[in-house]
Recover the amino acids of this structure.
């Protein structure tokens, strides 16, 4: 039996790793793009799950979002592409174009290669950052909503995600006609780590387990498990109804940092004894931001803002059912301890 091949970009990343794992478990062949061939050994080690025979079903293609080289070879012979790769800084870049340009140009680079290769459908990993920033709503955000890149004070990351996704839809409506596009917009992604490489969300849990920050800013996050994000990618890849659609991925209501901290303490018991639960008043965050880079990250227009989002569309249209948010948070903590990453 000939297996269909799926290209997964950014193969060494947190979400991409779980997408690759889900595809292999579903019987697909996978070609993973990496910036360097030296990353292949670590990727195979991360995917060494008991009972899964990878064999030759996993291939590696070397390609970088900032260069054309390698993308035609990476997409050749693939039925589908999961474009997961995206530049992400743990601190705000000095020049926002350092984040925006790779996101937008890299997305178009992958889409053009997929189109030339005759790929049937591309599933783009966008973000809630392209949906729910720059303006406030009284109702939960859904797939009709877009982040305004021109909103005052908007950080580089949500701006980059909004502009990259807009560029993808414009490509699909023009140059890419004949190739289907679906988009997944996850909120904060938590869940079990496959390796010691940390994403911003898992770094948040690691910091809390180590007692950082000592008091919590009034920020809210959506939570979703990385395994459910991978599952939604596969559903968006094969379901005929998903073509031309966006899908928010969120498990229940948004949580404050204090609620996240309390969930960790309740589920991890003594191992979470250092997790802080005291809340900082907004005025103090703004005052400290003059002297602290960490406080400056919190002192954004999002500070003190209540928000929510719904994944009703993914659940109704694709039959997607996410795990509870607390389960995703605890799985993050458990894997951080298992891998020895909590100081």
């Amino acid at each position: 039996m000939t297996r269909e091949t799926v290209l997964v970009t950014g193969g060494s990343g947190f979400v991409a790793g779980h997408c690759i794992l889900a595809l292999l478990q579903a019987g697909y062949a996978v070609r993973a793009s990496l910036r360097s061939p030296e990353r292949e050994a670590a990727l195979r080690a991360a995917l060494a799950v008991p009972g899964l025979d990878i064999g030759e079903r996993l291939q590696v293609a070397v390609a970088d979002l900032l260069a054309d080289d390698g993308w035609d070879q990476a997409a050749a012979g693939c039925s589908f592409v999961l474009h997961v790769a995206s530049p992400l800084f743990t601190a705000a870049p000095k020049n926002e174009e350092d984040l925006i340009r790779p996101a937008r140009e890299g997305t178009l680079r992958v889409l053009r290669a997929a189109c030339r290769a005759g790929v049937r459908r591309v599933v783009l990993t966008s973000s809630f950052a392209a949906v729910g920033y720059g303006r406030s709503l009284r109702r939960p955000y859904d797939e009709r909503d877009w982040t305004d890149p021109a909103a005052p004070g908007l950080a580089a990351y949500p701006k980059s995600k909004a502009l990259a996704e807009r560029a993808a839809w414009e490509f699909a409506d023009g140059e890419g006609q004949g190739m289907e596009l679906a988009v997944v917009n996850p909120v904060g992604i938590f869940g079990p780590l496959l390796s010691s490489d940390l994403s911003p969300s898992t770094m948040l849990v690691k910091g809390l387990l180590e007692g950082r920050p000592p008091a919590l800013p009034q920020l809210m996050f959506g939570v979703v498990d990385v395994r459910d994000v991978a599952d939604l990618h596969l559903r968006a890849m094969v379901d005929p109804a998903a073509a031309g659609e966006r899908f928010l991925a969120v498990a229940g209501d948004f949580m404050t940092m204090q609620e996240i901290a309390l969930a960790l303490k309740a589920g991890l018991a003594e191992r979470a004894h250092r997790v802080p639960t005291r809340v900082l008043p907004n005025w103090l965050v703004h005052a400290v931001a003059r002297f602290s880079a960490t406080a400056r990250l919190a002192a954004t227009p999002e500070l003190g803002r209540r928000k929510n989002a719904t994944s009703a569309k993914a659940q109704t249209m694709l039959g997607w059912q996410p795990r509870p948010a607390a389960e995703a948070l605890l799985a993050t903590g458990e894997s951080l301890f298992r891998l020895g990453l909590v100081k």
Remarks:
- The chain has twelve helices and eleven strands.
- Residues 97-116 form the longest helix (20 residues).
